Fold these 2 entries.
Entry 1:
Amino acid sequence: MESMLLELFVFLAAAAIAVPIAKKFGLGSVLGYLVAGIAIGPFGLALIHDIEEVMHITEFGVVMMLFLVGLELKPSLLWRMRVPILGIGGTQVVVTSLAIAGVAFFFLPWQQALAAGLILSLSSTAIVLQTLQEKGQMDTGAGRSIFAVLLFQDLAVIPMLAGLPLLATLALDHGGHHHEAALFDITELPGYARTLITLGAIAFVVIAGKFICGPVFRAIASTGVREVFVAGALALVIGTSVLMIVVGLSPALGAFLAGVMLADSEFRHELESDIEPFKGLLLGVFFITIGASLNFTLIGSSIGLILGIVAGLMVLKWIVLAITARVYKMGKQDRSLFAVALAQGGEFAFVLFQIAKSKGVMPTSTIDPLVSAVAISMFLTPIVFLLHDKLSRNEAVEEDESEPDTIEQQDHRVILAGFGRLGIDIGRFLLTAGVKPVILDHDVSNVRILREYGFEVFYGDANRLDLLESAGAREADLMIVAIGDSDRAKNLVETTRKHYPDMKVITSATNRDAAYEMMDLDATAVFRETFGTALHLGQAALEQLGIDPYEARRLSLIFKKKDHEMMPELYKLRCEKEAYVSFYQQHHEDLKAVMELDHPAHQKAVDTAWTAKNPEL
Amino acid sequence: MANILINFAHPMKSRSKINRALRSAVEDLDDVTINDLYDHYPDFMIDVEREQRLCEEHDVIIFQHPFYWYSTPSIVKEWLDLVLEHGWAYGSTGDALSGKLFLQAISAGGDADTYTKEGYNGFTFAELTSPYRATANLCKMTWLPPFVVAGVHRGLPKEQVQLHADEYRRVVAALRDDRLDLEHVLRSELLNSDLNQAIKGE
């Protein structure tokens, strides 16, 4: 127990120290983790053991990441991406595999060369996606192409897992890891049954994601106990993974599928913010283990060979990627990022090399330098990203005029917090005006009813920073606070102001005092919740009393304007009771003078308005 | 027989004796529709379709309004800007108003003799209303000289108001019954300068 806690402490402390330092130097968190791994690994301070074990556990971070990626992708969007996934992804995997195999064929028998080609064609989903997300490049043209390729690679792992043993030429290494069945081993079943079970499992994930998860999460959410929801979310991801492993599919793929099925649900942002920290931690530790697993003894003894493999691997992959990008007619900027981003080995290579070893496909002497080369190429990736950023920035400045902007037009990003009696009309108004806000509401039954009416409302408490984050607060331009509860509304304005100082915040306030407090918090604009309705009712009352509608309207507008003008004065005086009251009364009297229907001053104002008349007559 | 549309525009009609009197003098006539623009559109959101339909359903279109700044209250300008669409009111296919009669019924603050070249206001009613004449012209309507009640700023005596109201009623009824001598009217500067001559068969 103690040693486990100690090891946990070492991992977390290393991350906590290394990542901020790396970030400070603009290196990105991935590189920070990798360096931390080297520092605490066997060739650094030697503080950790069982690196492989930890690596296997934390590989689960990749699964969670794909779940999160799935959450961002609605099925319709995924369907639109089928061409890049199959086309660009397929081209990259096939051509890279053959190219690497071709080169390896000079040194290895063809079976081993082909196995190495297949395994090394994969890139690192974890490092690339994490880096792209950190840079906010997921939504660019290059980002989408890169994602398409990574997704195809994740799919390609499945046939590779199945096919690798067919390339075995060596005597089996007894006692090696065999497929460990969690519940039962379906490999003992006949072929057709296996296929049926596999298809059944996928169908189950799709159907469960579409029809069962909604009611279950709704029931969980209605309890209002947050950690139960977190538990539910984790159970969903882990359960899906287990199911996929049992039927012999990639758990990452299953989690991705589950994510896609839930992308349309009202719990999207809540799930995202609940899983996100687990993913971050697991991936972080996973990167640390990659850093720690760099075998410096081996690297030292055959440094020439390994560096040669690294250089060959990255250059070869880069060439294939660059050609692929050209064939699929990407823009110049997109092309270079695309080629640089995917030119490394991936974490699946560790898994596949492990299998290649245990199934007798390749000897350890071949595998070890390859594994080291993959790890080094992954280590180099964040650095390559940095270099590319520097170079392309210079280029971008030079080419500013000739190249059109490749950044996609972003939506107006508006977050509407609260979709109750006030928020619903704000939302309807904005939607009909073509502005699509991200709508958050914390009342699960309300959310369900509104969803039935076709509003895309997400369940969640807007006061939680992580939920705001996954609702896109970082890119949003505007926050609209339409929460009835004064304290929660204030809290949200405060949080938004503090964490997103560039975002404009317009808010409702229950009454004048609440409005002052909102002004204290520096809200961009504050509107008293009932003021508009009060004016409309007043105007309607005047009309019913026989006042001309146009005059009633003008009076209401005058009142509104005067009240608005009075607000800053009252705000200044709000702490001095007497001055406040007397100012208020004075203002009220003045207003009455201007507005009173039969008042001489008003009569005169009306009579002198509009008419040009002879002053002498 | 003709249908008559009176587009009434006064932002505070409750305070205009003369306009109220004129209006109530014609309100009970058959085939006369009064369309109060400020009542219908206090926030100036003019319903173009409704207004066009009303125009199409009537043969005579009267704008009754005070002569604010030698012109109309602002909602009438808004009305013209929005309702008189190309292809409907004017242009090669814009024939919706073709052949209809156009008339302004104006209440002016200054006395009639101030609206002369030598007078205080320096221009005649014919000159000052010429943009509306041009507008009617473009829309292929028959423009009529304005019906003017001048000198209202001092407040006209009751009898005088009644006199104008009666005249207004006579004009509107005559327009409705095709009893207005258009040729005679078009020769005069104001429609109501000599009603006994202008209206036939009374």
Entry 2:
Amino acid sequence: MSKLPLEGQKQWIGLLLAGLILRWSLLPFVMHVDAVLGGDILTINRGSVAAVHRVQKLSTYPPMAEYTIGLYQSISKIPVIDAKFGLSATATNVIFRVLFFSKLLYLLFDVAALLIWTCLFRDNLYSLRSVWGFWALNPLTLYNAYVHGQFDLIPVFFVVLSSYFASRNSSRWAAFWLGIAGCYKNFPLFFLLPLVIILAKSWRERLTLFLLGTVPYVSFMAPFLKQYHTSIGNYQNWYFKASYDLGLGAQVYLFFVFYAALLWYLHHRKAHTFEDFWRACFAILLVYYQFSYFDLHYWAWIVPFAAIYWVEYPKQARPFYLVIGLCLLVLMAPTPLGRFLAPISPRFFLRLPSLLEVLNPYLPMLFIVNVVRSLMAGTCFYLAWRLLRDMPAWHSEAPRATPEPVTVV
Amino acid sequence: MRQVIVLVLVSSLLAGCTVGGVDIEQEQASGLAGELLDGHSFGQTFTLQYDGLYRIDLYTATYARENTHPVIFCILPLTPQGEGQGGGFPSPSQWEGQGGGFPSLACSEGSGERAYLVHLEFPAAEISNSGPTVITFPPLAGTAGQTLYFSIESPGSMPGDAITVYRHEKDVYAGGQMFMDGQPTGGDIAFIAYTQETFTPADIWNDFYSRASQDKPFFRFYCSLLVLLLLALITTLVWPGRTAGARDTQCDPAAEKEA
């Protein structure tokens, strides 16, 4: 690796430290709360430890995730807060310690992702500074891991790792790490087929990449199929809701219509560049969110590709990120954000209403939120279209040839 | 101007912040409980999550007529509330030990012996037929985790001149049950209970500190690393910078690309 050009860049190191301090501050004091089970992070911890000790079946998360977190929990001896506590879990004395050490695992993956990004953009200081700034203050990762307490940063790290190898033309490693990412949460599997189509140069190589991406997933999932609680039946209602009905139970899922069309588009472009890959993945997620119900923390999935777009095309990215960010802020209206601070004072913060509850008597809040949701959908569709339209190369990295002028006789 | 803003901020912080909302929401009903006649009562036990019970929305009905007899509403504790609350009230199990019923739960009986938390009388005209009757009273302290009992009676009411309440025949609310004439019966009355509390920053800090101080080793570790990070940040920002050679020699590929 070449030497990082860091001389005279103290303000950027300061920014990295500020990002670290911000994360550190959020670790023990903020958590997602849930009236029945206490909160997401407590449910994940409980299920993971139980899975490792074979006390109960796997919960809703993939086996690889449960075993990774469960092993970490067991090694670090983090106390497990019983489900019977419910919301009272926030009032226990050990809650700060539990939150801190549980989320520390996410911080490790978060910092590891930053290191890979640093390697990815190490050749240019300007790009490096952009990606550091993006990492330090990225609200999506901050919300996902440190506020909500979800473990999406683990698969996101593997997606970043996969992107790194894809950028270095190591398509086999890229496919493999994408498969590993899919073992933690299923969303990285959306990127496997685009990766196969874009980075493989022959049908044989395509098959190899496909197998490298799917074999880890199948190997880790197959032994646990009987124990796995999440049935495919939930997927259609939660994640692929937008569809049209053909009668007799037949449905066409709009996201997959787009996905198939995109794959054919990529296939006929015969594109082989890393830029095609990240653009396609970015577009896939932008469209996916518009066809499925999502909680804000799912948006962390888009971070690896959003970071590259931010670094490579900051002027283009800025207005889109601003609008989407504002829309996401409005979409938070139904979420009682104050409750995330419940560990500090459960008696006070658990009783804070959401913005929607406060404004509902005066404004048609649900309508307003849905209007904003629609505006964001339009923005995301347009950005996805631009990302695909502006794919830089045709057949290779060479710029697209200017068409010959046609003389009409 | 700045002083005024600071003053407003400080005074609002000291005054505290009142938060509250729905504590129990049992709106399910399968029908009416029947006319509430003289000498009878409807009641419901319920367990609150928070302190500061100040309002109960009771789903009532008037049979779309003008009833004439006043209605008495009262709330009393079932679980002993400790010394601060006057204590001494028998628990449900103790009542069960006295014959399985709750003979002294009526609002109009033994009022001299019983310290009601709330005892209100209002005219029948105030009973709603098209929505819940909103009953408000000064916030009750120390209600978190307590099982309370509310009862409604209408002395003098007779068939054709009586109100009623909505109820669900099944036990849809796990935190309590319906009573008729002091006797537990199946199902639950439809009602919503609201609580509210005022917090000052000191209350919030005490809530935090009382728990954080019990895990001192963790907070020592946490704070020392936080201080280290802050020191590193300050050092980075204060340390005299070297020549910004790298910055000048590097080009911005993004700008080039976008151009």
